[in-house]
Amino acid sequence: MVSTTGEQHAYFELDENLEPKAQPLPDDLQVSVERIVENCEPSICSVLFMGGAGGSLRAGVTENPVKLTNSVKASLTHVSCGGADAYVWPGGGITVMADVMEMPSNSFGYVPTPALVAPIEFTMRLSDYITLGGHAKNVRPVEEVLTPDVRRVGRIDPDADPMAAHNYRWKDEG
Question: In whole angstroms, how far apart are CA 135 and each of 34, 40, 56, 64, 77?
């Protein structure tokens, strides 16, 4: 008998009364148990965010929100959520789905409307932005925005150990 993860296993043989009796696991079966353990991957829960870019959000990008929608549908504009690639659903409007595990921690907020607030980015060429009626007078070069005064946070190593001591301000006193 072997659990699906291989963590629990036992070997039984029936005695003369057909009662199962625990016995040492034979070597050839130990190989099978080890293979099960080796191939068992940790499970995770997939968390997907799905939401729509409403009119007020789109109006913050362009004077004519429908032109932004058309630009997304024509693949002239790339949509991301907190830097994570977003799947754009077919149909009207801009409805997206993104893997929350690819987004930064604490990406979401809320307002009393009530509404969930999520980071959503529209990336396109400057010429396309101007054509769709974007707020071009507010566009600034990257060099002007990213100055030494701007706090920058490096990308977190996805393989980092969250329990590592350097992640905490206190010192190990033990």
Answer: 61, 52, 14, 10, 15
CA atoms within 13 A on the CB side of 67: 15
Q: Which residues pair with 79 in a beta bridge?
A: 122
**How many whole angstroms separate alpha carbon 68 and alpha carbon 78?**
11
CB 25 within 8 A of CB 9: yes
CA dihedral 154, 99, 68, 141 (to 10 degrees): 10
* Tens digit of each residue's pLDDT (9 = 90 or more) over 87-125: 999 988 899 999 998 898 888 998 888 888 899 999 999
Q: Closest Cα to residue 78, out of 37, 120, 43?
A: 120
Nearest to 155 by CA among 98, 105, 81: 105
Domain positions in the chain are 1-43, 48-145
Q: Are the CB atoms for 158 and 105 separated by under 8 Å?
A: no
Question: What pTM did the predictor assign?
Answer: 0.61
